[in-house]
Amino acid sequence: MISSPTASLTSGRLIRLKSEPSPTQIEEFKQHVKETGQPETFTTITTSKAENLEEAKILWKFTLDRKKRPNWDEAPCPICSPVSPKYLSGFLVWFPKENCIRAIGKECGRTLDKNWHREVRAFKIREEDEARRQYILQKLHTVPQLISEFETELATAKRQHSVWRDLKDRCPAIVQHLRDNMGEDLRVSRRSRNKTLSSSNGTSNYYETRIGKAQGYAAVRRDFPNVREIKSSIEHLEAISHGSNSHEISVRLQVMSKKEQRAIEKVIKLSETKLDRVKQRRHDFLSFFSDANIETINRWATDQNTSMYFTMKLNKNRKCLEVSCQEFSLETIRLRTII
Ligand SMILES: [Zn+2]
Predict the structure, then answer these.
(1) How many A from CA of 70 to the centre of ligand 1?
(2) Which residues on adjacent β-strands are paired with residue 188?
(3) pLDDT tier at 1, thresholds 50, 70, 90
């Protein structure tokens, strides 16, 4: 017979269960703790003193909300403090020798059993394994979709790469000049009209004026790595793809080795980060060719004090970028369909 929680707390009660609690029953306990902050009042919890932890198995780790507890106190612990407040961080534990569950303080198991850390570690691994399985169930069926997104990005990246190569090949000095100066604000040095200026670096007849901030720094600065990165992502994703049928995937997951699960999780996580990065670079690249940016670069490059004079202009229908400077009269870079 199950005694009432109030009466049992002073005497301690042992409630035998038929078997280890099912995930649904553990869920009920979680809900109870969340609502009341009182693991010791759950209907099937045992509060009698635990004598040993032989074969005991951690089912859940929790932290109590003190504000939900009567008198804002801590929960009693059936290992070291069955009737007085003891802990806020605890474990729900299955005791197979007694067929019961107890909620114990997180630090208390080791006072009863010097090998308790092994079960704590095993529980952590079980939790990680479960989280990985859930992740795979949630994500693996989206891999074909992810591959298709990368393929769309690949087509765009190839066009962008080709445009940038064209610009680098035909106007190498200008690209180098941009590389050296972009990233920070675009500035020019002006000669002071009346007096010598002093600063922490000493005195100078020149001062710097800011023209503006240029966009598309990542594209200008480095070799555009999108094509290479996308191809490698597609390759990795194709190797772990199990199609888009969630049901088939959950069946396959039952027989999948841990090593394979780890590899799948790693590839998906990495690919998602890479896809974000690839998209950022695509936007960054496009921002270089925006009207406002070309205008800023022009103001900087045609300033009377510029260190290298050149002009950049998008032609009317934005199909070409026209670049001219003293060394060559005009280079026309076809933008294909990147804009
Ligand atoms: Zn304790």
Answers:
(1) 19
(2) 209
(3) very low
Cα–ligand 1 centroid distance for 63 (angstroms): 14
Query: How far is ligand 1, taken at its centre, from the CA of residue 19, in Å?
Result: 24
Q: pTM for this structure?
A: 0.77
Q: Hey, is 44 helix, strand or coil?
A: coil
Nearest to 50 by CA among 79, 80, 17: 79
The residues, any chain, with a CB within 8 Å of residue 184's CB and separated by 6 or more, are none
For residue 1, give every residue at least 6 positions away whose Cβ sits within 8 Å of its Cβ, in sequence order, or none: none
Would you say 153 and 279 are in contact if contact means Cβ atoms under 8 Å apart? yes
DSSP 292: H
Q: Measured in angstroms, how far is the CA atom of residue 3 from the centroid of ligand 1?
A: 23
Indicate if the pLDDT at residue 77 is higher than 90: yes
**Among candidates 278, 8, 282, which has minimal Cα distance to 164?**
282
Which amino acid type is present at position 160? Q
Q: Please, are residues 93 and 56 in contact by the beta-carbon 8 Å criterion?
A: yes
Q: Give the whole-angstrom CA distance, residue 74 versus residue 38.
A: 9
To 5 degrees, how large is the angle CA 65–CA 68–CA 72?
85
Residue tagged 């260190």 (tokens): 307
Which residue has tokens 């099937």? 44
Question: How remote is the CA of residue 74 from the centroid of ligand 1, in Å?
Answer: 11
Report the separation in Å between the CA atom of 118 and the middle of ligand 1, taken as the mean of its atom positions.
Answer: 18
Cα–ligand 1 centroid distance for 110 (angstroms): 9
* CA 106 to ligand 1 centroid distance, Å: 8
Q: Please state, in angstroms and rounded to a whole number, the distance separating the CA atoms of residues 200 and 188.
A: 19
Least confident span in 12-16, 211-215, 229-233: 211-215
Please report, for residues 19, 216, 295, the alpha-carbon distance to residue 314 in angstroms, rounded to integers and kept in the order given: 75, 16, 10
